[in-house]
Amino acid sequence: MTLEINSSIDARSSRVLKMSFSNCLGIAKALSTQLRIDMYKALMINPMNVAEIAELFELPISTAASNINILEDAGLIVTELVPGTRGRQKMCAAIVSAVVIEADVKPLPWLEKALSKFRCL
Question: Cα–Cα distance between 104 and 118 in angstroms, integer?
């Protein structure tokens, strides 16, 4: 898994996470619910703390925190504990703007043989 940072024309950065089929399961699981997809989209627009995310999606803070942990474990977001009005708050921000999954499979021998018949035509 590699993270590439590319400068775009408008001087903003795009962070592309490149991976192969063999190691994309964690991200696939992290983005397997509409709630986590929506949370991730919201964090791409604006960093928020867990309480703000819970309020935005009308969730208990524990549910928001659990889903944030899944996105963080997959490497899609980062979190940081910062001083808050009462104690500390967990700030969350998206770090990846695109995920590219590259095929790392080799053609099956029987498929190559079948396709070679058509290449002669």
Answer: 24
Cβ contact 90:114 at 8 Å: no
* Mean pLDDT, 10 residues at a time, the chain of 121 residues: 44 71 87 97 95 98 97 94 89 90 76 73 51
Neighbours of 48 (CB within 10 A): 21
Which residue type, as a one-letter code, is found at position 108? Answer: L
- Is the distance from CB of 88 to CB of 94 less than 8 angstroms? no
Half-sphere exposure of 58 (CA within 13 A, CB side): 0
Structure tokens at 21: 């089929």
Pairing assessment for the beta strands 48-49 and 88-94 based on DSSP bridges = antiparallel
Cα separations (Å) of 52 from 49, 56, 83, 86, 90? 5, 6, 15, 15, 10
Rounded CA-CA distance 106/79 in Å is: 38
CA distance 114 to 112: 5
Angle made by CA atoms 73, 42, 58, in degrees to the nearest 5: 90
